[in-house]
Design a protein that fits this description.
CATH superfamily of the largest domain: NAD(P)-binding Rossmann-like Domain
Distance between the termini: 42 Å
Largest sheet: 7 strands, parallel
Number of domains: 2
Number of strands: 12
Strand content: 15-25%
Radius of gyration: 18 Å
CATH topology of the largest domain: Rossmann fold
Shape: globular
CATH class of the largest domain: Alpha Beta
Helix content: 25-40%
Strand order of the largest sheet: 3-2-1-4-5-6-10
């Protein structure tokens, strides 16, 4: 299959490109710089220069493809305004990617986050939130999935807040960055809140399976660790970096503080049964042992 991918040179995207190429797919990767184009080529993809704001480039990439995977996001969490800008940018990009696929039956796999279900692990049937700092992303995903009756085999892979590889990535990675800046491996509240997690290489397999097999309008959970206590995550970070581990105010984490403080376990049981996905890579705590001081 000829696949067009956005975000193909990031932590998750580079793993997805490698997985697709290994499975025999031909990949074109959106590349916003010369260095990202070089990384795409090194991974076996053909770069297409442009960014998420280059809507005509996105339409052209989707038009020439037999399937599309969207992963790119600005990831600027410095302020509510920056987050809102990234959410709007992504919504417009998804509309551009989806347009050429209407009526073709071709797949469009987009990315989402696992939702929160108070008092239990969320499942694939739970709705995505449309409120909060990134609630607009839930609305964008809903619009994509609603294209199934219009001839787009649209699917969403919901990633947990931490997608990791060699100790890097996701919310755990943000905790690590905060620890290095502040000198404390901090966690909000009592640290009992749980975060789901998945290794990037396992997530990549799920994106491929969704591209190849997922029915239109479906959602899937790339969850390996159903819920790891944030205090346990901070404890490994502190030990690996040689820093004290302690509770800090959630405001210390900026706009994401309330999200960091939320208990948000998630289940991937239906995904494993429905697509035969079996994560085999190290779990989050084991992978954090790769952190250097």
């Amino acid at each position: 299959m000829k696949v067009f991918i956005t975000g193909g040179t990031g932590l998750v995207g580079s793993a997805v490109v490698a997985e697709l190429v290994a499975a025999g797919h031909t990949v074109t990767a959106l590349s916003r710089s010369a260095s990202s184009a070089e990384r795409a080529e090194a991974a076996g993809a053909t770069p297409l220069r442009g960014s998420l704001t280059d809507l005509e480039v996105l339409r052209a990439g989707a038009e020439r493809a037999e399937g599309v995977i969207h992963l790119a996001f600005g990831n600027d969490f410095s302020s509510p305004e920056a987050i809102a800008r990234d959410v709007t940018e992504e919504a417009e990009a998804l509309a551009a990617l989806a347009g050429p696929l209407i009526g073709t039956g071709r797949p469009l796999v987009t990315v989402a986050g696992t939702p929160v279900a108070p008092g239990r692990a969320s499942t694939e049937e739970d709705p995505l939130p449309t409120e909060g700092p990134v609630g607009g992303r839930g609305e964008s995903v809903a619009r994509v999935l609603a294209l199934a009756p219009r001839g787009v085999r649209a699917a969403a892979v919901r990633l947990p807040r931490t997608v990791h590889h060699d100790g890097r990535g996701g919310f755990a990675g943000l905790l690590t960055e905060h620890a290095r800046r502040s000198g404390v491996a901090g966690y909000p509240g009592d640290g009992a809140q749980r975060w789901p997690a998945v290794h990037a290489l396992d997530a990549a397999v799920l994106f491929r399976l969704a591209l190849e097999e997922a029915p239109g309008g479906s959602s899937w959970h790339a969850v390996a660790d159903e819920g790891v206590a944030v205090r346990a995550i901070a404890s490994v970070i502190g030990r690996r970096l040689g820093l004290p581990v302690e509770s800090v105010p959630e405001e210390a984490f900026g706009p994401l503080g309330p999200v960091f403080a939320t208990d948000q376990p998630a289940s991937g049981a239906r995904t494993r049964a429905g697509l035969g996905w079996t994560p085999v890579r190290p779990g989050l705590l084991a992978d954090l042992e790769n952190l250097g001081g």
